[in-house]
Amino acid sequence: MTDPPVNKIVIFAVSGLESEMLTRVRLDIDRIFYCQTEITPLSDDLTYALDPARNQYLSASILDRLITLAPGHVVKAIAIVEVDLFIPILTHVYGEAQMGGKACIVSTYRLGEGVSLASETYFHRVAKETIHELGHTFNLRHCPSKACIMHYCRTLNDVDRRPDELCRYCKVLLDDEIERLAKQSRLSSANGNNINRISGIKKNVSQSLPP
Ligand SMILES: [Zn+2]
Ligand SMILES: [Zn+2]
Questions:
Q1: CA of 4 to the centre of ligand 1 (A)
Q2: Of 70, 77, 115, 155, which is the most buried if we count CB atoms within 10 A?
Q3: Residue 76 forms beta bridges with which residues?
Q4: CA 150 / ligand 2 centre spacing (Å)
Q5: Selecting from 3.90.1300.10, 3.40.390.10, 3.30.1360.40, 3.90.380.10, what CATH number does the domain 8-190 have?
Q6: Residue 129 alpha carbon to ligand 2 centre in Å
């Protein structure tokens, strides 16, 4: 039996998403997380997550669904949807992630505000939010540095100003987490279980911490 693909992240995408945008997102995921991606269509019918009173979609419900939909060989799963997402304590969210878990989600609903949906700025926003939410699934928390993609953003101005790179400190944390996942994967592989394999990942991380 051949081994399943390694270092894979699945992107669940609803039907209306631009292929150019998906290409950008895939390149950025490879650049930051050293992971290949595969695209799987996500049903446009998300009514199971709809809160009729708010006319918004509960992101946690979609995350739960993603876990059941994600193929066993992928390390992470991200959904990119077009509906307006919320969590109960906030009016809306651009995305949500399971900290250190498998699934995260990004909504394009508000990311196009004030710009053309064909613009570089819009694509950039979607790609940045995708990296940010995936970063949480790799156990990265919000970073105090404004020069880091893990910095918390409340507004689109914040998103536009935030760079699409991890700071050196978060890069080290990501490297540690990838190392941990690789070790875990080798262990389960040794036990005859190839699920969630993550191996052969490129190392590209500065070992020194910022002052
Ligand atoms: Zn965040
Ligand atoms: Zn950082």
A1: 31
A2: 77
A3: 9
A4: 5
A5: 3.40.390.10
A6: 14
